[in-house]
Amino acid sequence: MRQPAAIDFEIIFKHAPIGMCVSEKRVIQACNQALIRMFGYGPTDLIGKSFSVLYPSTDEYERTGARIVPIMNACGHYSDERIMKRANGEMFWCHVTGSALIKDDAHAAGIWTFEDLSARRPVTAELTAREREIAALLVEGKTSKLIARQIGLSPRTVEMHRAKLMRKFAAATSSELVNRLLGVTKQAADLPRTEATISR
């Protein structure tokens, strides 16, 4: 009987169709080709670099890191959709998922995946760091009160940022704003939910 071929996990990691990296203390220790292409860096440019180079600002890097800790420590993994930055400065929506390798120490060591969402969800307005953060939480379906509690602002301040986002995206309602952030066209948003889902 023929023996199954040995699985080369290094090759799988290197050629996986989704961006992947291994981190320690939020410093990239290894990354694959898809991640390098996605962010527009050279083959070894990201090795030994902080995750901060992938964020639009230092504030967003620090606030996201703080938000990850309690969630990761509670369940061992974390996932969100956020705006990130390529080497050339271009902003893009990215789905990020991570798993902690050491229990109760979220940033000690982890495995992270990155999926580029820009093909179906372009960044069409220039946003501040706070607006990007609040936009990401709105996409998750969170209310202003929940967002305020999560990021340490007053609900009134969150509403102010939401109003600015609505103006920048020419959205008349909060649901229209979320659709614009998700890259859903007006025609698709007007379809029944099942039909709109199938069409995407």
From TrEMBL:
Molecular function GO terms recorded: DNA binding
Transcription found in the keyword field: yes
InterPro entries: PAS, PAS-like_dom_sf, Sig_transdc_resp-reg_C-effctor, Tscrpt_reg_LuxR_C, WH-like_DNA-bd_sf
Domain of life per record: Bacteria
Domain PAS span(s) in chain numbering: 32-60
Domain HTH luxR-type: 120-185
Transmembrane segments: none
GO biological process entries: regulation of DNA-templated transcription
Keywords: DNA-binding, Transcription, Transcription regulation
CDD domains linked: LuxR_C_like, PAS
Protein name, entry field: PAS domain-containing protein
Organism, as annotated: Noviherbaspirillum pedocola
Lineage of source species: Bacteria, Pseudomonadati, Pseudomonadota, Betaproteobacteria, Burkholderiales
